[in-house]
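Researcher: I'm preparing a figure for a lab meeting and need a structural model of a single chain. I don't have an experimental structure, so a prediction will have to do for now. The sequence is pasted below. Please return the structure as C-alpha cells so I can convert it later.
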Amino acid sequence: MRRPSFQFYPMDWLTDPALCACSFEAQGVWMRLLCVMHQCDPYGHLSTNGKPMKPEEIRRHLPGFSLQKVRKTMEELEKNGVFSLTAEGVIYSRRMVADEAVRMRCSAGGSKGAGHGIKGAAYGAQGGRPRAQNPPSPEAGRGVPKPPPSSSSSKSPPTPSAQATDPAQPEAPATSTSVEPFKVPPGWSAWCAANTPALMPNLEDVAQAFAQHIGTKAPTLESWRQFCKDAARQLHAKPVAA
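Model: Understood. Here is the structure written out cell by cell.
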C-alpha cells in the first residue's frame, strides 16, 4: 500500500539553486510531478510500467496545459538541473530516491531488531530484566578507596601490603570516561543522506564524533546539521542544500 505522504522541507525547496533558476510556473509543475512520482513505481520516478512517461501522459496531470507548453516547461526544468534521468531516459527526483533508500534501510534494521523487542516485552511482563546472581557490592563500583582513620583513632591503618593481600578488599574498577553511543534518528540520517551524502558510508563514526563534540549537551537537529556540514567541508564535499 502506497504511503499517503512524503517528507518535504520548505527551506530546502526555497533555497535550492536549480529551482530558484526556474520560473514560478515551472516550479509549480515540478511540485505537481513530485506528487505524481510519489505514486509511481519505482518510487520517485516519473514512469508508467517502468517506462519513461511521455509528454502526452504528463499533460494528463497538468490540466490546462497544451502539449507544446508541457514540452517547453520540461525543457526548462531539465536545463536548470532540477531532475535527473536514468539510462532508460526516465525522469526522477534525486531527493525522493535518496529519502526512500534511507527509509528502506531503517525499515530493514527495525525488522532485524523485532526479536529483541519481544525479549524486552517478556522481561517487562516479569517486572524487568533478571538480576545477576552475585551482584557486586556498592563499594566495589564507586572507584573511590575508603579514607584512612583519623590520627585520634586507637586503631592503626592497615599497611599497603595488608591491603594488597586482603581478599575482602577487591580492587576497584577503573572509572569509564567513554561517551555513550549515539543513535542517529531516521529523520536526521535522511537529512544527512540528502545534504551530505559523502558522510553516509561512515555514518556511525560521524555519530560518535558528534556525541563527543556535544558532550553532556542534549543533541538537537540544528547542532547535528551544523556538525555534518563542517565534517563534509573537511572532506571537501560541499553540502547539497542549506
